[in-house]
Every structure is written in structure tokens, then in C-alpha cells.
Design a protein that fits this description.
The complex is a heterodimer of chains A (110) and B (114). Chain A is mainly beta and 110 residues long. Helix content of chain A is 0%, strand content 60%. In chain A, strand 4 and strand 5 form a beta hairpin. Chain A is globular, with a radius of gyration of 13 Å. Chain B has 114 residues and is an all-beta fold. The radius of gyration of chain B is 13 Å and the shape is globular. Classes of the chains: A mainly beta (110), B mainly beta (114). Chains A and B meet through strand 5 and strand 10 of A and strand 5 and strand 10 of B.
Chain lengths: 110, 114
């Protein structure tokens, strides 16, 4: 069966460090992958999209990699700040509809 | 640009009652999604519309859930009758077109079934 797995439920890091979140998938052949941020009581907010033919994408302090051989995407936040604390969700397309992983809750401590 | 609007924001009902949620997507967005998010889990796709046609409803419990998107604009999701396990946040999202585009989410409707 198709699965999207995010590495851990929670990740705690110190301010200024780089946070690395993992998204693994099985039995998918996604054309692209997206990352979203979700704050408590709010809907997810789009961060980055990476296509299957792209290895890496950057936006300010964010970096996403996409390895279709390993079936894995890594999401990095450099120079993390307490304001980056949130749940981060990866989403894959399946026949043009979006399926989400369970998310990783990131806490950045001052 | 106005975002995705959802109402109500909160709803508490008794089991076996019915409930309806409303969504108004961003103007011009052809694709509309309804997701169910249970506490601590990621959003689960219930149904996807492309304009006013259903693209995917494979995970919609059709014995109790129904959705429509009249005129390819706003949409309603109904549950009848509700069960305790339907307690969740129901998120509506829209995107410009199918595939490879970002989705914009509303704030969601938090449903509690008692």
C-alpha cells in the first residue's frame, strides 16, 4: 500500500541550529512533492514545491531535496528561530490529488 | 487577495445528527479539496473537485458523507448521520488547477461529536 512517512512526531532543536526533517514514501511515483507549515488551529500554509527532475530547491532559510531513487525528501531550516516552531507536513501528488504525511512537530528553543 | 473562507469555525453536535460545512475558494481556482484532519494526524483527502466535477472521492465514506460544488465555485460537505469518530477539523483548500500547484487552505471547521 502507499505510504508517506515523516521521520518523527517531534523534533526539538536549539535556536541557530539547522533543523532537518525527513519525508519517506513507498509505492508512489510522484511528479512533485510539497512542504507545508501548520500552526495550531490554522490550516497548512505552502512553503516549497520540488519537481521530480529537481534535486534541490531553496527559499531564504529553507532548503528541500528530493531523491526519487531513495524515495525521500529532506527539508532543512538553517539558522532556526523560535518562530519556526510549528508542524511541518510533506505532501505528494497521486494522480493529481494531494496526500499528506502525518507531520513533524518542530520546537526551536531559545 | 481574499483567502479560502470556511464556516462555521466550530460545531458541536450529538451523534446521529447531521451537519454541513461551507467553503468558498479563492476566486478563479478550479480545484477544490476537502480534507479531514484528526488531532495529531496529517490531513486526509476526502474529495477533490475540478470545477464542478469530482476527480477523486475514493476516501469519502459515502454512506454518511456527501459533497457538492455547485457552479464550480463554493462547496458544501455534509455528514449524516454523524459518528463520534467524525470528530476532527475539516479543511477546505483550493488551487489554481490540478497538479503541481500550491494549495491554499482555509482555517478549517472544528467538529466535535458528542
Amino acid at each position: 500500500s502507499q505510504k508517506i512517512e515523516q521521520n518523527s512526531e517531534a523534533l526539538n532543536i536549539q535556536e541557530g541550529k539547522t533543523a532537518t526533517l525527513t519525508c519517506n514514501y513507498t509505492n508512489y511515483s510522484p511528479a512533485y512533492l510539497q512542504w507545508y507549515r501548520q500552526d495550531p488551529g490554522r490550516g497548512p500554509v505552502f512553503l516549497l514545491l520540488i519537481r521530480e527532475n529537481e534535486k534541490e530547491k531553496r527559499k531564504e532559510r529553507l532548503k528541500v531535496t528530493f531523491d526519487t531513487t531513495l524515495k525521500q525528501s529532506l527539508f532543512h531550516i538553517t539558522a532556526s528561530q523560535p518562530a519556526d516552531s510549528a508542524t511541518y507536513l510533506c505532501a505528494l501528488d497521486k494522480d493529481n490529488d494531494m496526500r499528506f504525511g502525518a507531520g513533524t512537530r518542530l520546537t526551536v528553543k531559545p | 487577495e481574499a483567502g479560502v473562507a470556511q464556516s462555521p469555525r466550530y460545531k458541536i453536535i450529538e451523534k446521529r445528527q447531521s451537519v454541513a460545512f461551507w467553503c468558498n475558494p479563492i476566486s478563479g481556482h478550479a480545484t477544490l479539496y476537502w480534507y479531514q484532519q484528526i488531532l495529531g494526524q496529517g490531513p486526509k483527502l476526502l474529495i477533490q473537485f475540478q470545477n464542478n466535477g469530482v476527480v477523486d472521492d475514493s476516501q469519502l465514506p459515502k454512506d454518511r458523507f456527501s459533497a457538492e460544488r455547485l457552479k464550480g465555485v463554493d462547496s458544501t460537505l455534509k455528514i449524516q448521520p454523524a459518528k463520534l469518530e467524525d470528530s476532527a477539523v475539516y479543511l477546505c483548500a483550493s488551487s489554481l488547477r490540478e497538479g503541481m500547484t500550491e494549495a491554499f487552505f482555509g482555517q478549517g471547521t472544528r467538529l466535535t461529536v458528542v
